[in-house]
Amino acid sequence: MAMPRRRHHDHRWQIPAVSAYAFAVASLVLVAFVGSSFYYSLTLPDPNRTGVALQHVINGRKGSGGGGGDSYKPPRLLKNAPDQQSEFEKAVVSYQSFSVPSGGGKSVHNLWGSKIAKNFYGCSNSSNKFLTAGKNTHAYRYLMIATSGGLNQQRTGITDAVVVARMLNATLVVPKLDQKSFWKDASDFSQIFDVNWFISFLSKDVKIVKELPRVGGKVIGPYTMRVPRKCTQRCYQNRVSPVLSKKHVVRLTKFDYRLANKLETDLQKLRCRVNYHALKFTTPILEMGEKLISRMRSKGKHFIALHLRFEPDMLAFSGCYYGGGDKERKELGAIRKRWKTLHTSNPDKERRHGKCPLSPEEVGLMLRALGFGSDVYLYVASGEVYGGEETLAPLKALFPNFYSKETLARKEELALFSSFSSRMAALDFMVCDGSDVFVTNNNGNMARMLAGRRRYFGHKRTIRPNAKKLYSLFLNRANMTWDAFSSKVRTYQRGFMGEPMEVRPGRGEFHENPSTCICERTQAKATPDSTYRGRYVGIENSKVRENKIIDEPPDDADDELDLTDADYVDYELMEKGLSNGTESEDDPFIKSEEPELEEIFSD
């Protein structure tokens, strides 16, 4: 039977005729009510501000089944005047009861892993046609690179540098890490990564040396240049190779995302060998990271690791708004003025396009809707959170078993790392990689790198928020029941849960979706499982596509760097020119590069 059509009523007030006296009395009552309401609104925090003062904290009983236990209820608060409200605020003016169960409830997914993950495995061995380093490397050709950004952005640069050295038939000098960025981390390569392992593991692929050799007792000075982003193999052959032949030593600056996604299969597999096998952390980092993982595992059978990006600088740059009123607008607006080239922010537009990181509260609600109860143990990797403990309060109320490296380890245990941002980031990277479930509120470098790594090593559960869809849901959550809300979250998150076949091969950044390096077991191919046959299977058949360039969908958006990628702010955004003037605006192979706003945020 067809459902009755909802009528749209006219909500304009209809005021009957009244006497002047009655009207005067009514006016006085109305004025008194508005005055008291205005006073009340000033004494209460904003309900969409992530740092709400909770009226109710979960103290429900342990156990993940059902919806029993106490419930988390956002406080009923008043809002700013209608003419000052954003679309984000207007949606919650009419507040209804939104009771969140402490238990996880039912889920259509296996929350802690994929049922078909066992059918896929990482495969990065080279083909028989891939020449050894001894046969591929030419004499007197040395490539140096200067990485850029935070630890994970530098990791992409190091990985791609090995591949570029291979393409140029050059010897790679151990990359120099970025020591001049916002973090001012003085660590060198050997203090983060096991340099001897790096050199020996890749010895059959690329010749690598720790420093330039001396010629006649002197070190040859490198010729410095920079290539545009997404530089192809042809780009390097035409642009850098002739310089190498003439100068013998070339140094490429700001080397991050300087290599195209489209490469031959053997080169893509080399990328995987570097990223997932050759880049091994130093022994102190590995030992401390394993301790942190062990301590999380001792608390329960499973744990979630959340990479939470909610720093003031990042929020200011994103142009997003989180309901903090004039205080938030003034604080983040002042930070945003540092970047002269940014357009005027449009918070509602940014949210609609899925560009805004989820707030801590939104992450908590998403996880609860997916089925994770309050008994779950949560490890949080984050920098400075805007609003501090007040902002984290809703997330901690939803998941009271809340930990970080600072709460798991003694101060003296972290002394070797705490003064170095890259080493601290390496510890977070290890715990996130070792977790049963990895969750992110953003799409930055660490989130991408870990998503790719977890796909390669067994498709461990990795949850990325479908921000575009969740935007409207969070906007209207006050007008629906918890059951309706959680059902929609589960629907919207299909395809964002880290299943083996979620992403089409070649789509997105290769470091996030290393499809060339993921193979399907033979017996799985013959399995008539309708749950995943017929969808995109993120694997490469090396016999069919051996040494061919992997095609990508014609989606330019995938080649654009998300400018909210970062852990630091590079205040030298508009740095111009190169030391040797080797860039040419008339280069026939490469498009001119946009101003390097991409370096503002990197993790």
Can you walk through the features of this model?
The protein is α/β, with parallel strands linked by helices and 603 residues long. Helix content is 34%, strand content 8%. The strands form 5 sheets. A 5-stranded parallel β-sheet has the order 6-5-4-10-9, with helices on one face. Strands 13-12-11-14-15 form a 5-stranded parallel β-sheet. The protein has a two-stranded antiparallel sheet with strand order 1-2. It is globular. The N and C termini lie far apart (55 Å).
Helix count, per DSSP?
A: 21
The counted number of beta strands is 16
What's the mean pLDDT score? 78
Major β-sheet annotation: 5 strands, parallel
User: What's the overall geometry?
Assistant: globular
Give the radius of gyration: 27 Å
Helix fraction by DSSP (H/I, runs of at least 4)? 25-40%
Which parts are unreliable, with pLDDT below 50 for 5 consecutive residues or more? 1-23, 31-70, 74-84, 87-96, 528-600
Percent strand equals 5-15%
Secondary-structure class: alpha/beta
Q: What's the arrangement of strands in the largest beta sheet?
A: 6-5-4-10-9
Alpha-carbon distance between the two ends: 55 Å
Transmembrane segments: 20-40
Region (Disordered): 575-603
Protein name: O-fucosyltransferase family protein
GO molecular function: glycosyltransferase activity
